[in-house]
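PROTEIN DESIGN WORKSHEET
SECTION A - STRUCTURE
LENGTH: 226
TOKENS:
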């Protein structure tokens, strides 16, 4: 599958089978992680066999059977959370392409049991639980497209609509979709409407919009990357 198909098929999964990752999946993830780290100066890490980090119940949902994850680590600086969202979602989609399921996790884990290396000047805003789900997850009801965007062109360009439809499927904190996408004077802007994990959500939405827009107009790109 390509990345657009991965967007359509990927849903958050919080329950996993007791099954180790295949060698092929590990190789694919390590290549994607290395690409993200090199491109954005991040320190993403594939963490194997860390079930103790995910054995805690939380008020929002519950994780079952998680044994592996990707720790989204990067240097503490302005823009880190948005970078984590933008590059982390690529990891999530590539995991889907490799036959894995995943779930973004910000609070429902114990960091001290991750076994990851975080330097004094680094932070780990969240992680991505990965593995073979006991199910494939399910889509959640979202806001209609007209509530998520505005274009000063009438009708809006096909690439813009395709981008918004992909962004409409982006995972956001508590599924609140607190973002708005605007096309004004030939420039696309994505803004946050506030709420938890705001900057991470913004990065995820930007990644989805980019993939959707490029499915119609391959030459499209962000004028300003995270």
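SECTION B - SEQUENCE
RESIDUE ASSIGNMENT:
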């Amino acid at each position: 599958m390509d990345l657009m198909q991965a967007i359509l098929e990927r849903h958050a999964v919080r329950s996993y089978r007791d099954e180790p990752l295949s060698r092929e999946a590990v190789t694919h993830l390590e290549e994607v992680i290395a690409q993200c780290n090199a491109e954005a100066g991040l320190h993403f890490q594939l963490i194997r066999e860390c079930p103790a980090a995910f054995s805690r119940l939380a008020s929002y949902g519950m994780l079952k059977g998680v044994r592996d994850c990707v720790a989204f680590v990067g240097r503490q600086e302005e823009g880190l959370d948005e970078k984590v969202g933008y590059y982390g979602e690529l990891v999530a989609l590539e995991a889907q392409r490799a036959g894995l399921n995943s779930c973004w996790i910000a609070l429902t884990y114990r960091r001290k049991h991750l076994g990851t290396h975080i330097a004094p000047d680094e932070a780990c805003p969240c992680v991505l639980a990965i593995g073979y789900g006991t199910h494939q997850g399910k889509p959640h009801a979202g806001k209609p497209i007209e509530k998520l965007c505005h274009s000063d062109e009438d009708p809006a360009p096909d690439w813009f609509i395709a981008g918004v439809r992909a962004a409409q499927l982006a995972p956001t904190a508590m599924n609140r979709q607190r973002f708005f996408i605007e096309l004004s004077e030939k420039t696309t802007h994505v803004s946050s409407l506030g709420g938890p994990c705001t900057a991470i959500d913004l990065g995820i939405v930007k990644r989805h919009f980019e993939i959707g827009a490029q499915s119609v107009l391959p030459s499209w790109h962000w004028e300003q990357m995270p």
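SECTION C - NOTES
Helices lie at 3-9, 23-40, 80-97, 158-168, 198-216.
Strands lie at 45-47, 68-75, 101-105, 122-131, 149-151, 179-184, 187-192.
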